[in-house]
Design goal:
Elements lengths: L1 E3 L1 H5 L4 H14 L3 E7 L6 E6 L3 H13 L3 E3 L7 H9 L3
Antiparallel strand pairs: 1-4, 2-3
């Protein structure tokens, strides 16, 4: 989840260009930016992405944040297939 910084909102007209650049950067890093949603409410933008590992995810989010347009709030999620594995490991 992202919130625009003062810099980011001043250059909101460039948001689609930034989204396309992010897609390219994620792909080059071996990750996939699945979708981007511009939202009303507490957060300005929500992205869904998959990365091969946490290190790649951290690197990508730091690179996005270093551009100065957004602040991030992240959460790690698992899909149904991964949840099945978790539940199978319960005693």
């Amino acid at each position: 989840m992202f919130n625009w910084t003062d810099q980011g909102i001043r250059s909101a007209k460039d948001t689609l260009n930034r989204a396309n650049a992010a897609r390219k950067a994620f792909k080059e890093a071996g990750a996939e930016l699945i979708d981007i949603y511009w939202t009303l409410g507490q957060y300005d933008v929500v992205t869904i992405f998959e990365a091969p590992d946490n290190e790649t995810a951290y690197k990508l989010l730091l690179e996005v944040g270093m551009q100065g347009n957004v602040r991030t709030l992240t959460m790690q999620a698992i899909n149904e297939k991964e949840m099945v594995k978790v539940l199978q490991g319960l005693r």
